[in-house]
Amino acid sequence: PSPLPSPTLGRLSNASQSLLVWCKEVTKSYRGVRITNFTTSWRNGLAFCAILHHFRADLIDYKSLNPQDIKENNKK
C-alpha cells in the first residue's frame, strides 16, 4: 500500500491550487493570458503584468505589451 500524504503536503497542494484559481480569476479578462500552471503560463510575462495591471493600472500599460517580446515584458 502507498503511504498517505502528509498533512503538510496536502495543505501545500491546496494552497497552490487556491493561488492558481485566484490568478486565473484576476487575469481572466486579459488578452493573451491563459494560466494553467506556475511555470509555462508565466514565461512570456503577460500573466504577471496582468496581475500588476489589475491592482495598479497606473504602473503598466498592458495594452502596449507584445506577447512575442518576452524579454521586454519581463522587464516592465
Automatic annotation (TrEMBL):
Location of the protein in the cell: Endosome
Nucleus keyword on record: no
Domain of life: Eukaryota
InterPro entries per the UniProt record, alphabetical: CH_dom, CH_dom_sf, F-actin_Monoox_Mical
Pfam families: CH
Upper taxonomic lineage: Eukaryota, Metazoa, Chordata, Craniata, Vertebrata
Domain Calponin-homology (CH): 13-76
PROSITE patterns: CH
Name of the featured protein: Calponin-homology (CH) domain-containing protein
CC terms in the record's Gene Ontology section: endosome
Swiss-Prot/TrEMBL keywords: Coiled coil, Endosome, Phosphoprotein
Keyword presence, Cell wall biogenesis/degradation: no
